[in-house]
Write a structure and sequence with these properties.
Elements: E1 10-11, E2 28-33, H1 40-51, E3 67-70, E4 85-89, H2 91-96, E5 104-106, E6 116-119, E7 124-125, E8 138-139, H3 140-152, H4 183-192, E9 200-207, E10 210-212, E11 215-217, E12 225-228, E13 233-235, E14 244-250, E15 258-263, E16 274-278, E17 288-290, E18 303-311, E19 326-328, E20 334-337
Helix pairs in contact: 1-3
């Protein structure tokens, strides 16, 4: 028996991250970090944010050709010195330049000086964007990834789930990894910096877009979803959880098995209770929104669960990387009642 609700497979709208501002000639960019401004862990997070955009034959992202290269560290940084640098300034500096509401900025100077400046008065932490305390903490790696996207040439994207969303936490996480560009961002990257790779990588993001306070987010629209075993149906206005986004990068389509499972802890595995599945044919470099063919929650014990999604669950697709093949909800928000 199922919950009786069928969810259709739909193609997401074209990527608005194609809106590019001042691009960079060529397929690589260079930057240097002012080491005295950041701890070793923070420097590693900044590098991870840059590397999230790296593509090409030797990287996870297939069908695109871009690479960020870190040059030798520097001891000081400043605007208009004709070096691309990553450094910090305090709130007074941001106020003086009319950036009072910014966590970090990519300065709009042209030529080879387009620095990334972090606000030293912010509380920078090393966490997944969805795990940060949004009002008090900022993910330094994810903000770096966002600013490096500006440095490549992408403008803000608030109409779709994207790393380039002006509200950085709404970019979400890719799989259970901290710093991977979102599907929309990759589609833009592959369009402007196409590569010749024939490899395949499946990217599985959080949930399909929901608008919150005027911005598009990958969080669920409501704080909880409830399934009533006795009635064999979803309870209340929230209904079942939303779709997830899946993308194939490379030059070949794929038909991966996608499974929806429930976990009693934050670790999602293939032995968790199966509540839905689907095997769609997914095109190349276009994000798809997909839900299970049907929900089957009736055989699950009453409890609170994390919802997990696994793509290529049967390992039938040969991929360049499987690190982004599983995602989970950010908190235990699916409840099964007797």
């Amino acid at each position: 028996m199922t919950g009786g609700l069928l969810l259709a497979l739909t193609c997401a709208a074209p990527a608005r991250a194609y809106d590019i501002g001042i691009g960079i000639v060529g397929n690589e960019g260079h930057y240097a970090i002012v080491t005295g401004n950041f701890t070793s862990t923070e420097r590693a997070e900044i590098d991870a944010g840059a590397a999230a955009w790296n593509a090409g034959a030797g990287e996870v992202l297939r069908g695109a050709d871009w690479e960020w290269i870190r040059d030798a560290d520097v001891s000081s940084g400043g605007r208009n010195n004709f070096r691309n640098e990553v450094y910090e300034r305090d709130q007074a500096f941001f106020d003086a330049n009319h950036w009072s509401d910014a966590l970090a900025v990519t300065t709009p100077l042209v030529l080879n000086d387009r620095d990334i400046i972090f606000n030293s008065d912010e509380t920078w932490v090393e966490c997944l964007p969805s795990d940060c305390q949004v009002t008090t903490e900022s993910s330094i790696g994810h903000v770096a990834m966002h600013e490096f996207g500006h440095r490549i040439g992408f403008n803000h994207e608030n109409d779709f789930v994207a790393t380039m969303n002006s509200e950085y936490e709404n970019g979400g996480d890719i799989g259970d990894t901290a710093h991977r560009i979102n599907e929309d961002d990759f589609a833009g990257l592959a369009y402007y910096y196409p590569g010749s790779s024939t490899g395949i990588n499946l990217m599985l993001s959080k949930w399909a877009a929901a608008e919150e306070d005027g911005f598009v987010s990958e969080q669920w629209e409501t704080p909880g979803h409830i399934f009533d075993l006795s009635a064999n149906s979803w309870v209340g206005p929230s209904g079942p959880p939303g779709d997830v986004l899946v993308l194939v990068t490379g030059t070949s389509t794929a038909s991966p098995l996608i499974e929806w499972r429930l976990s009693s802890n934050s670790t999602c595995t293939s032995v968790d209770p199966l509540v839905g599945s689907r095997t769609p044919t997914v095109g190349v470099n276009v994000p798809y929104s997909v839900g299970p063919s049907a929900w089957n929650v009736s055989g699950v014990s009453a409890a609170n669960y994390y919802l997990c999604v696994l793509v290529d669950a049967d390992n039938s697709v040969t991929e360049t990387s499987g690190v982004d093949n599983g995602v989970r909800s950010d908190y235990a928000s699916l409840t099964v009642i007797p």
